[in-house]
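step=encode ok
step=design start
structure_in=
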């Protein structure tokens, strides 16, 4: 039997209008939320509205109450101080390292608040629109950073950061959550629904295949290369293949949304049911238009900090003496996933692994089959060539990360050892990118220099020219070459002349 409607008449529902009440069951919230929003809910602080309600002006009450909910209603609110510091450092032309650091820190609470605001808006939009909004805004920070990097033609930063975000969610976020959850429930194995993880793993494998095909074609074309062929033809083929694969991945993502929100939403139902008992009295604290305005403002600030981030990332790399690849693959994703990371651990500690998997696997899947192909299409639109060739080392790291995660989740149970293994895999990959200095070259990702014994490092692109200079072909011999033949006793036995 449905529970009776509960009126919500709080004045801080900005955008509802004075005198308009919400009923607790007027908008069903089932199936419209994603694990991103549930992770942000775990970081929310309850605001005391008793003082706000005593203010004489309703407009002032609404404004102050919404500020308290949006800015101070999170346990990460103290990190908002980094936003004005970053803007001031940029305005007064202070150290670019300071600008980069403060922008990086400022993105942490902003990403969490975007999830909170999309959840608030979904109270009013209904299940379908709310679910689409939550899914689309789940990785807004990564998408905005990718857009600004592409506008500055920093394709390598986009590739590295998105690949690093996938690895961070699969190995670091999920691994630390399984570790903490296993230690908190050390006397038993934690269990979760395998159907959800199987869906996400299959999509991740599809994305891996789409990323691998351009790489395989590049190496196959190089192996079978006709000396008279134009090398640019292979590059064009890789670009066209990447764009085609990106369209395929976007189709897969939309099919995934239909699968999750409509046809098979019962598979993802357990995520919501696990938090329903603790949130039965939940009601929106921000009105529809207030939520939209705040969401637009937060998105604008994220865009501003993303621009600062992209502008100063090279300077930070030089100042810190850390490879640019390490910052893009490891540091950026860790900060970008900080709020989801905290939420995933909290739910794992409460033995709610279905939500933890929804946070980690859901985010990785969304980046792999939505943000990455959308970045390729956006680059195509603005006239920038971005393909899905992530180079051998990077693609191999991604493949191993997906396979290790798939094996760890195949039996539907979890314990702390699985978390340890996933985290150690992430440490190995991070150390590899830190130790293996992979500077960005204008031609793309991957190693651009090799160390030759007894020689200085030389560009890989110039290596064939060096070999050709040292190789003497028979049809071009213009002078006599002398070879001395020595027998086993070290005695000269003759000379050979060509």
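sequence_out=
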């Amino acid at each position: 039997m449905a529970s009776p409607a509960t009126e919500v008449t709080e004045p801080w529902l900005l955008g509802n209008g004075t005198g308009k009440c919400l009923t607790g069951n007027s908008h069903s919230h089932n199936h419209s939320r994603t694990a991103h929003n549930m992770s942000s809910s775990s970081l929310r602080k309850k605001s005391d509205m008793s003082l706000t309600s005593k203010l004489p002006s309703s407009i002032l009450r609404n404004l102050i109450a919404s500020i308290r909910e949006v800015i101070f209603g999170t346990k990460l609110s103290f990190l908002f101080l980094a936003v004005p510091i970053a803007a001031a450092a940029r305005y007064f032309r202070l150290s670019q390292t300071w600008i980069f650091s403060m922008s990086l820190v400022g993105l942490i609470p902003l990403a969490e608040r975007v999830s909170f605001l999309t959840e608030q808006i979904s109270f009013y939009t209904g299940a379908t629109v709310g679910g689409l909004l939550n899914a689309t805004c789940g990785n807004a920070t990564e998408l905005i950073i990718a857009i600004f990097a592409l506008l500055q033609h920093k394709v390598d930063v986009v590739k590295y950061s998105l690949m690093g975000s996938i690895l961070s969610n699969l190995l670091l976020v999920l691994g630390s959550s399984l570790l903490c959850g296993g230690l908190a429930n050390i006397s038993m194995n934690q269990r979760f629904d395998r159907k959800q993880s199987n869906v996400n793993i299959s999509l991740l494998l599809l994305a891996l295949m789409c990323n691998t095909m351009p790489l395989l074609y590049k190496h196959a074309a190089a192996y079978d290369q006709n000396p008279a062929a134009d090398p640019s033809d292979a590059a064009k083929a890789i670009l066209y293949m990447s764009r085609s694969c990106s369209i395929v991945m976007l189709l897969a993502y939309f099919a995934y949304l239909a699968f999750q929100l409509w046809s098979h939403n019962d598979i993802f139902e357990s995520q919501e049911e696990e938090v329903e008992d603790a949130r039965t009295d939940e009601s929106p604290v921000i009105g529809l238009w207030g939520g939209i305005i705040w969401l637009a403002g937060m998105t604008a600030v994220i865009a501003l900090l993303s621009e600062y981030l992209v502008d100063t990332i090279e300077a930070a790399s030089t100042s810190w003496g850390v490879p640019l690849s390490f910052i893009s693959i490891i540091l950026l994703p860790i900060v970008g996933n900080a709020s989801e990371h905290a939420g995933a651990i909290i739910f794992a500690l409460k033995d709610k692994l279905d939500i933890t998997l929804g946070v980690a696997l859901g985010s990785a899947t969304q980046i792999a089959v939505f943000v990455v192909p959308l970045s390729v299409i956006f680059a195509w639109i603005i006239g920038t060539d971005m393909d899905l060739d992530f180079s051998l080392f990077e693609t191999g790291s991604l493949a191993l990360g997906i396979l290790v995660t798939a094996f760890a989740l195949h039996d539907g149970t979890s314990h702390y050892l699985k978390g340890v293994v996933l985290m150690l895999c992430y440490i190995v990959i991070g150390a590899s990118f830190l130790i293996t200095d992979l500077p960005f070259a204008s031609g793309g990702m991957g190693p651009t220099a090799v160390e030759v014994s007894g020689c200085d490092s030389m560009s890989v692109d110039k290596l064939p020219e060096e070999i050709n200079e040292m190789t003497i072909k028979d049809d071009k011999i213009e002078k006599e070459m002398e070879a001395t033949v020595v027998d086993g006793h070290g005695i000269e036995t003759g000379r050979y002349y060509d």
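step=design ok
step=annotate ok -> The radius of gyration is 27 Å.
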